[in-house]
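## retry 2 of 3
previous attempt timed out at serialization; input unchanged, resubmitting
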Amino acid sequence: MTESYLIEVVRVSKSFPGVLALDEVDLRIRPGTVHALMGENGAGKSTLMKIIAGVLAPDTGAIRVNGSSVKFNSPRDALDAGIAMIHQELNLMPHMTVAENIWIRREPLRGMGLLIDHAEMVRMTQHLFRRLNVDLDPDEEVGNLTIANRQIVEIAKAVSFNSDVLIMDEPTSALTEREVMHLFSIIKDLKSHGVGVIYITHKMDEVFSISDEVSILRDGRFIANHVCADIDRDSLIREMVGRNIDELFPKETVSIGEEILLIENLSLRGVFTDVSLALRRGEILGLGGLLGAGRSSVAKALFGVTPATSGRIFVRGRQTIIDSPATALRCGMAFVTEDRKETGCFLSLSVLENMEIAVLHSRYTEWGLVTQNALTAECERLRQALRIKVTHLHECIQNLSGGNQQKVLLGRWLLTDPGILILDEPTRGIDVGAKAEIHRLISTLAAAGVGVILISSEMAELLGMCDRIIVMHEGRMTGTLERSEADQLNIMRLASGERRAN
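## retry succeeded, writing output
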């Protein structure tokens, strides 16, 4: 008897100018299962999902839904066929309410179909939230929600279509551990109703916690499919990257030098209070804590994005008022933000323009003119060093995978030759191979004398890379851990609000 599949992708290929994104890829999704899709950034995962969701059309190959061949001309066609997708970069309308975002273009009507029935729309939203155990106000504007709650709204919107196949692209990237567990309970409920979930993630723990099967793509090609119970972590990594990764956290032992940054009792009214820290040459200083602890806000204050309301900052022994990013740059600081789409990339510009934008008025300018040849050559050198997968520097950055966009941002700030580098979630949404490369780069920079402040929600990253870890809870420091004493238990105690005795 032939096995039934909700969806089958058969020998699908897709090319873009100069790039073969997919090369005869196969994928089959069974009812009531979670199928993880893994691969390095640029492996073709997003392209494949956009084809399944009707955003892109394949060049060759076939898609079958419940055994019947289909051709999608739009995402609407895919939705009508029972396929919904939650994108990694959220697509909600910030000035509309939660309910309006969920039911947009499907609003219940009254008055002979001429008016939107707002009360009924709220009732439908409340019914959906009860099913998903979500505690959000349907009338709240989405722009007022945290990133995590916006992610929950996006998930609820996808579930509201009652689709047979639900694609989740990095759904836990902005969720706390508790919210991840909530999402997993939603997924298990969907499975029990026969829904097939395609789950894209770079987090190994999630693959083995929630998935039944896993398929691996590499360089646009299908590599293997496994039942999760039949493969281990190391084997999965080898198939993803085509090589062994012996050390994900290549922390070098370096000689820690003199103090280059000191902040005393730094505060931002209503956000964080009395944060004090010192950073030395060659040191990797971690900032840990749960989402909402204030870590990113401290970084933004240090770089002058949202200047502190009180406290003192000393850079290389000199008290400095950092009231703007331009001032921070002059002090030899650089800052890679946590949200590459909103506050990092200029999506309409090229890779070259994104990399060079921070140095156009510095050492690459003579008599008011940019020395473009020298600057382009340096950008090309960094492109190769960071292994950015792009055909040429003039390609629009919007066409790159998330991980490669992140590497471009790192390249931008490395061009400034910083002495102090602030990294806010530098490996979020990046595959294990690229993570190891970025960790190696961080170690190399520290060995060259750069002081690094590393903000991360990944415990293993903090423990593997940092010389010291400062932990925050609800806008306040709760303790500092030396590398020799840092472990998951101590970090979680401090992150939960337990203060460390002096």
